[in-house]
Amino acid sequence: MFCRNCGNEIRENQEICLKCGVKPLSGGKYCQNCGVDVLPQQEICVKCGVRLAGGANISGRKMINPSTPPKNPIAAGILSVLILGVGHMYLGQVLKGVVLLIGGVILIISTGFLAAPVVWIVYFVDTYMIGEKLHSGKSVWEWEFF
Ligand SMILES: [Zn+2]
Ligand SMILES: [Zn+2]
Question: How far is the centre of ligand 1, averaged over its atoms, from the C-alpha of 41 (Å)?
């Protein structure tokens, strides 16, 4: 079998992977059966068809999966600049969007609009990069940045 964290080949039932030092089934990056790259939230390996084991380290995290048709990263960025946080909500990071909306407004008002350009740029880049990940078929965590 293979370590689900680093893809190193290990003995069956080995407790700890000797290459990366973690419990082999606690990772989520490789199939334990054939060693092919998989996504952390993938349930079944599409190459060999086995059910992917473990993955305990990502449970409880709300993952956002790419939508079909994919969301537009540039639209997300522009939305984020027009109304802070809305670009994140559009991408599915709803809670993060709400927090960034409130946080961004407080930051901008409390600095007498001095922080506004920085907030806009950071929010644009963040939504654009999260949007790009989703656009390329990757899933993101609800609180993932950049
Ligand atoms: Zn390993
Ligand atoms: Zn496999």
Answer: 18
